Amino acid sequence: AHGVQPLASRWACDGEAVMSWKPVAHRAAAGAILGVALYMGADSVGELTTFVLLRRQALALAEDNEALKKQIGEPYTTGPWYNARIGFSRGANIAMCSFQLQGTQQITDVTVRGIRTPGG
User: Fold this and answer.
1) Residue 69 and residue 82: Cα distance in Å, rounded?
2) What is the pLDDT at residue 79?
3) Structural contact between residues 51 and 86, judged by C-beta atoms closer than 8 angstroms
4) What CA–CA distance (Å, rounded) separates 110 from 66?
5) DSSP helix/strand/coil, 46
6) Is pTM, for the whole model, over 0.70?
7) How far is residue 30's CA from residue 19's CA, in Å, rounded to a whole number?
8) What's the CA gap between 19 and 8, in Å, rounded?
9) Which of 67, 57, 43, 73 is nearest to 112 (CA)?
10) Which PANTHER family does the record cross-reference, listed alphabetically (predicted)?
11) Of the candidates 100, 114, 117, 95, which has an alpha carbon nearest to the alpha carbon of residue 62?
12) Which residues, in sequence order, are CB contacts of 97 under 8 Å at separation 6+?
């Protein structure tokens, strides 16, 4: 047997040859956390991009709406980011975002929906 031990004896509790699962479990947990963080980061970038595009379109429509400008007063600005919302349909092909327009006379919520086209 020339000093070669069977594989089963490497797992014996003789104090020297015991392999620890802690480093393996630690690496697996770190990999899982990294994967979740990357997924959430990519998802957040996608949502932010969708929100910015929809808000830009809504602001262009608001600029052409004389009744809205008269009602809220000019000049107007968008409200703070923390009062905005974005949501997606179950199939993720319809996006909806809401944000505030703050004019000199009043504040109103603007809601816009967009449909994601195939390949878009």
Assistant:
1) 23
2) 87
3) yes
4) 15
5) helix
6) no
7) 20
8) 12
9) 57
10) CYTOCHROME OXIDASE COMPLEX ASSEMBLY PROTEIN
11) 100
12) 50, 51, 54, 55, 58, 84, 85, 86, 87, 111, 112
